[in-house]
Amino acid sequence: MTAVQQAQPREGYESGAISTGDKVKKFVARNGALLGLVVLCIILSIATPAFLTGPNILNVGIQAATVAILAFGQTFVIVAAGIDLSVGSVAAVSSMMVAYTGASMGLPAWLTIIVGLLAGAGFGALSGLANAFLKLPSFIATLAMMSVARGLTLVVSDGRPVSTSGMVNFFGSTVAGIPVPIVMMVIMGVLAAVILNFTSAGRSMYAVGGNMEASRLSGINVHKTQVMVFVLSGIFAAVAGLVIAGRLHSAQPQAATGYEMDAIAFVVIGGASLSGGKGKVSGTFIGAILLAVIRNGLNILNVSSFWQQVVIGLVIAFAVSFDTLRRKEDAH
Predict the structure, then answer these.
(1) Which residues lie below 8 Å from residue 38, measured CB to CB, with a gap of 6+?
(2) pTM
């Protein structure tokens, strides 16, 4: 390319202007999940008057709350270019530790909750150490931890539900007409957003996910960041376990089975990239509400649960395909 050719401005950018089409494409790429949520709400409100009622809106929030909390923790891991398949099992084992230490060991309720949170952090730390220092891919490390945590849940409970105390049950209750699970979802969402957007730890997550080697050369402790994201994911999973136990008034050995797939879907639908370095808590929240609205709308319209699985699968496939296309465009 000659110097004259290099000096010539690209077509459509002579005055720094961006075409309307490019602006629309960029807006849709950044806000696709939100636009989809708005359109879906409009369609459902027209299709059935039961959708936009107060009780149903609260029901959507309750349905989204538990997995949204898991997804907020999953956001840290995916931003750092990892994946955590153990969050459902960690939620179950953490809630079981809370119930078991209260029912069988007689610990006060506040202490059992701390035990549950520490259990979540501990399982997350083990996954992080395996990923960072044993060089196991996060997929394999957390797949193993998923089996270990679920197995320990069954061992501790002997495969039976264990009742929880009043303080734990509070996490599934309603106060002044507001469901506590929704409050917990908002609190954990705000906490996750603060960590990602306003702390050096959050900046390290984005850097490691964007380019691990460049992060290492710039002085970021990559191993510490890798362990940290899994510890945070484990803590968020433990909180989700508390909410599940609170709603059921017991810790169930098979609780949160399959929730890890929904958590990953929430994050990806919300605009995060599975290759790392990109993702927002607000996007994860929108992804959670979008899937909850889809499920709720299909239930109201009496769509078979079998077909619901098909629809959800197609939505997830579309979101991942959209992420792949978006990354290809960014590469050009």
Answers:
(1) none
(2) 0.89
